[in-house]
């Protein structure tokens, strides 16, 4: 019974950690250079606009910078979450191997009784 409980807890931990990894894939900033280039182009477009004044241009640029900074922070948190979830999965797989390799006790097994043939 203890072995079944340990197996179910280990497998459920692996499933939850795998779900965390898959959930945070969308938040990773893999192509950061491409996104940084996009931000630079957007800032140039804002500078070229003549329908807004200097202060509004600065606000728009600061908004882009803030959004980019928040995206980087979110990406870093997602990466750390995935890293720790992967470590937990590895530990759980090792524990799962040890649980499966542990001997199962037999009921009504009395080692003091020997049968001589």
TrEMBL record:
Per the UniProt record, which residue ranges are transmembrane? Answer: 6-22, 77-101
Could you list this entry's UniProt keywords, alphabetically sorted: Membrane, Transmembrane, Transmembrane helix
What name appears for this protein in its UniProt entry?
Answer: Uncharacterized protein
């Amino acid at each position: 019974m203890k072995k079944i409980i340990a197996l179910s807890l280990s497998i459920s931990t692996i499933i939850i950690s795998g779900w965390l990894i898959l959930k945070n894939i969308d938040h990773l900033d893999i192509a950061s250079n491409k996104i940084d280039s996009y931000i630079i182009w957007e800032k140039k477009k804002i500078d070229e606009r003549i329908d807004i004044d200097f202060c509004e241009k600065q606000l728009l640029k600061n908004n882009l910078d803030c959004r980019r900074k928040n995206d980087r922070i979110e990406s870093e948190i997602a990466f750390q979450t995935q890293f720790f979830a992967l470590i937990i999965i590895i530990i759980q797989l090792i524990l799962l191997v040890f649980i499966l390799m542990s001997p199962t006790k037999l009921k009504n097994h009395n080692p003091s009784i020997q049968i001589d043939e």
